[in-house]
Write a structure and sequence with these properties.
Malonyl-Coenzyme A Acyl Carrier Protein, domain 2; 4-stranded antiparallel β-sheet; Malonyl_CoA-ACP_transAc_FabD; 5-stranded parallel β-sheet; alpha/beta
Length: 301
């Protein structure tokens, strides 16, 4: 079965989405709707930048979603469809649309509000995030227990068996990063302003859940997997609850991809800029016979 994976924050660059926009009427429509709903200059941000403005959480979440879905709609024009859809963190909102769970207009309402709330919480509760490479989840969790004596720090993204992002308050997160280095890991500080997918986002999650009540969710028309449960989800009410929790919950990407493979996923297609997710899947399923590709320019299909 063919799996469409939609990337999240970290895959952006100035110029993203331009190839899809120039080659597809449906891609143009996505950008137009994104701008109409959000009031943001999405095309200018994506195609011209500047990068500093593009990477602001408030701008980036709708902009990257527009690029993902412009490429997706251009692929639909070419009758290139998925059987299963999923997304990494922000990318899960693109998957909601691709699964038929929410409308295109509502996707942009959701990611605009999500970006606003996450940017607000990052200003109120500054935090840090680090990618830790080379330690098992079990070993890293041991180190986090020690670092939690300094404050809030937790797992954010379980990206591969040995590439895990940690998130939390500055002192606690930096101490956890120090402990991970001492244990032999390679540690990279991420260029983010907030402790996303952590308890520091609790107020944003509460406010987002209230906003979600206004948005209709429909039963999925395609198989949809969740970051929070790492499982296939079919009940729109449950999916809405999980999306409300996602802001402050870890992204269980390793388990999610393993479960998608167990469900029959064999052709993994990254629909969006760069190749972050195909790289992760290669490390999660190294011994399995799967095909991996990224599609950024739908004209190549």
């Amino acid at each position: 079965m063919r799996v469409f994976m939609f990337p999240g924050q970290g895959s952006q660059y100035v110029g993203m989405g331009k190839a899809a926009y120039e080659s597809s009427a449906e891609a143009k429509r996505v950008f137009e709707i994104a701008e109409k709903i959000t009031g943001l200059p999405i095309r200018k941000l994506c195609f011209e930048g500047p990068l500093e403005e593009l990477t602001r959480t408030l701008n980036l979440q709708p902009a990257l979603t527009a690029v993902n879905l412009a490429i997706y709609e251009a692929l639909q024009e070419k009758n290139f469809f998925p059987d299963i859809v999923c997304g990494h963190s922000l990318g899960e909102y693109s998957a909601l649309y691709a699964a038929g769970i929410v409308s295109l207009e509502d996707v942009f309402r959701l990611v605009l509000k999500r970006g606003e709330l996450m940017e607000r919480e990052a200003e109120r509760n500054p935090g840090e995030m680090y990618a830790v490479i080379g330690l098992s989840r079990e070993k890293l969790e041991e180190l986090l227990l020690k670092a939690q004596t300094k404050g809030t720090v937790t797992l954010a993204n379980h990206n591969t068996p040995v590439q895990i992002v940690i998130t939390g308050e500055k002192e606690a997160a930096s101490y956890a990063a120090f402990l991970a280095k001492e244990a032999g890991a390679r540690v990279v500080k991420l260029k983010v302003s907030g402790a996303y997918h952590s308890p520091l986002m609790a107020q944003a999650a509460r406010d987002f859940k209230a906003f979600l009540r206004e948005i209709p969710f429909n039963p999925p028309q395609r198989i949809f997997f969740s970051n929070v449960s790492a499982k296939r989800e079919d009940d729109p009410k449950k999916i809405k609850e999980l999306m409300g929790e996602q802001i402050e919950s870890p992204v269980r990407w390793v388990e999610e991809i393993e479960n998608i493979f167990a469900a029959g996923g064999r052709e993994f297609v990254e629909v969006g800029p760069k190749t972050v997710l195909t790289g992760l899947v290669k490390k999660i399923l190294p011994l399995q016979e799967v095909s991996l590709r990224n599609i950024e320019n739908p004209a190549e299909i």
